[in-house]
Amino acid sequence: MSQGYYPNKGVPIKDGIDLSNLLSGVEFTLDVPGNNLQDEVDDTIQFDNFLDEVLSEDETRQYGMFEEIREKMVDLTDDGKLKKYIVREGTGPNPGDVPVFVHYIAYIENNKTPFDSTYGRLKKPEKIKLGVGAVYEGFEMAVKSMKKDEISLFLIHPDLAFKSMGVPPRIPKNATLFLEIELVEIGKIVEEKIDDGLQIKDKRSFSEVYNQVKALLVQSRMDFSINNIINIISNYRKAERLLSSCRLMNDTEEAKWKKLLFKVYLNLCVCYNHEKYNKPKLVCVTAREALQTVPEFAEKSDKLFYQFGKAKFALHSLSDALGCFKKAAKLRGVEDAEIKRQIDLVLLKMEEEQNGEELDKHIGFSPSRTEK
């Protein structure tokens, strides 16, 4: 992360707050260096300034309060207890049960002062082992949703954090947490618990993962015949996790990996758009991941842009939807009745909105309204 990303780095904490200590629930106090506490407090990250730095100029005007950020986030869990907003896209696969290096700033929701920050405590990224219970559940789920070099904002429900106990005095009971996380680096090994302790193993080979993924895809086709959307999505998510954590040995394996991963992304988009699930924000997230991770397939797929367009239309992003449908039509190469119907629907909606705005403008300046 560049030095200019944050206007300041928060209060430097002499002894720091370790995530494992937070997880244990032990009470603690903060020892801030320096003789003048007020001087240090003035250097604390202020949330409004923080948002001005991490969000684009256009998006900054739409933010400023936690509830406004929440509206922009997508749900990572079906119950909405973990929400995410991507500030800077990353690259590559998501981490599995591997060591990772992260920078983060942690807040209680609606509190402008962070209760923990790697910038103030460590001055460098923190190494965290995923998959061994080293951090609370929501933090691990958040990191596992990220890619290398990604920066994202997360809202974590207390059920996935410190629950009804909290960590007095800094974290009250039933506290919703707001985190900004940067995934700096992903380790190359996984750690698995076995009977006689902890064993370090290499990532699973693609040949091992390939057959499992193919079996999941076959099962998904069977579930699709009976409209079991929840099972299908679960299978595709498992397939995505398997592919994201495997080891590729050569160009041939990489080519197969990309083709299979794109198929998983595309089918997830179809399922997320299904009327029984209807999660257009997840379609957008998945489509963007496909375009970034496997552009060789994604950028040439009329089916992906068609699903992307449906999601954008559902989210009322009409110009984006129109662009996606036109891209799908161009990639299809021949006239497609369904794509044409979607384009006509978008154009009709845009015309209706334009007429409505003109009518509102006319009414707003009418003599009768002025007299009132």
Automatic annotation (TrEMBL):
PPIase FKBP-type domain: residues covered: 97-187
Catalytic reaction(s) noted: [protein]-peptidylproline (omega=180) = [protein]-peptidylproline (omega=0)
EC number: 5.2.1.8
Keyword field contains Secreted: no
Cellular component annotations (GO), alphabetically ordered: cytoplasm
Enzyme class, UniProt record, top EC level: isomerase
Molecular functions per Gene Ontology: Hsp90 protein binding; peptidyl-prolyl cis-trans isomerase activity
Gene Ontology biological process: piRNA processing; spermatogenesis
Nuclease keyword on record: no
This protein's UniProt keywords: Isomerase, Repeat, Rotamase, TPR repeat
Gene3D superfamilies the record matches: 3.10.50.40, Tetratricopeptide repeat domain
Family recorded in the similarity comment: Belongs to the FKBP6 family.
Name by which UniProt lists this protein: peptidylprolyl isomerase
Organism: Rhodnius prolixus
